[in-house]
Amino acid sequence: MEMEHEAAIVRSAEAIRLHRGHNILIESGAEPVIDRLARLDRPVPATPPELWGWTFVVKDMIDVAGLRTTRGSVLYGSEEALTTAPCVELLERAGGLLVGKANQHEFAWGVTSENPHWGDVRNPRHEHLAPGGSSGGTAAALAAGIARVGLGTDTGGSVRIPAACCGVVGLRPRAGAVSAEGVAPLAPMFDVVGPMATSVADCARVWQALSGEAVPPPPSLSGLVVGVAEGCAQAGEFADLGAEVREIALPYDILSPYWTIVGAQARRTHEATYPKNAASYSAGVRRKLDDAAGIGHREYRRAVAELAAVRARFSAEMSGIDVVITPTLGGPAPRVGCDEAAVRGEVGRITSVVSALGLPALAVGDLQMVGRGEADVLRAGLCREARGGAIPEPR
């Protein structure tokens, strides 16, 4: 067991070296994060825990005691975190080995993970594409072999969009299903921590470590009713797995109140530093914060009421449907050097609807499965994967 443990660290270190120019990790401290492992006392347990020897990275919105949390900005990270976020503690308790803090879109607000402070994250799997955002560094670390699994954050698609762009898997849980303690906020009503991996099976095992919920793969999807939205190309696969498929439309009218709430909450999140320190923000995040200026409590309350009404209506429309499948990306994956402001609306239009609805979703590359509970989407993904379903490539 100890040899496997050490081999995993060596593989991560070699991958970090090979991909040093891809700006995948943020190393803001005195020593590389992976070097901390040599100082940790990890006796070999008699019974190895669930993730024994699994390497992982965490997005740099998440606190780890003794490391800096930059939020992808130059305004934060001058002091080491005093405590470790519970979501990280759970993975370490399960045997996971933290090998890096992952780079990201500044303040977790963007779909490309271009970062003027820490370098633009590059996509190891598709060099002409951005890695997606905002958890682009976490997805890129998995695609590069730097880590086996990782933790990202997702407000409007920040776990799922990078999963699609980098060809990996990411789960957006329901709000509150994973503790957000020790995680820097963007828009707290919609912010969640989600696991990422290179397979649904690994993602399900990380989910078990985070939640205590084991999700065994079903032999088929017989008896499952699957709603197909946006002409999802994998509808036939789910029918072949035994599911009944029906068409369903997504409620895009939820996006107006959703973006009002996100903008208003983001302004509050940044009120101590913006606009006072506007010069230290990237132009893209400045523009988003400026666009959200002036949202008052009356407009905010109206948006919250509208959001609740659309959620209730869609819940009724989803009656009798167990899982909804869609593409993950609302359009072509963002290209390297693209104008993020010009593409983010289309790229994230589907994932944002799902975030607004408050439903859990599993992205297997450019395939998104949406359900009422995390186990619903994981079971569907596990069954498809066990029967040879590949990770769909980004468009």
UniProtKB/TrEMBL annotation:
<dbReference type="InterPro" id="IPR036928">
    <property type="entry name" value="AS_sf"/>
</dbReference>
<dbReference type="Pfam" id="PF01425">
    <property type="entry name" value="Amidase"/>
</dbReference>
<dbReference type="InterPro" id="IPR020556">
    <property type="entry name" value="Amidase_CS"/>
</dbReference>
<dbReference type="InterPro" id="IPR000120">
    <property type="entry name" value="Amidase"/>
</dbReference>
<dbReference type="InterPro" id="IPR023631">
    <property type="entry name" value="Amidase_dom"/>
</dbReference>
<protein>
    <submittedName>
        <fullName>Amidase</fullName>
    </submittedName>
</protein>
<feature type="domain" description="Amidase">
    <location>
        <begin position="18"/>
        <end position="213"/>
    </location>
</feature>
<comment type="similarity">
    <text>Belongs to the amidase family.</text>
</comment>
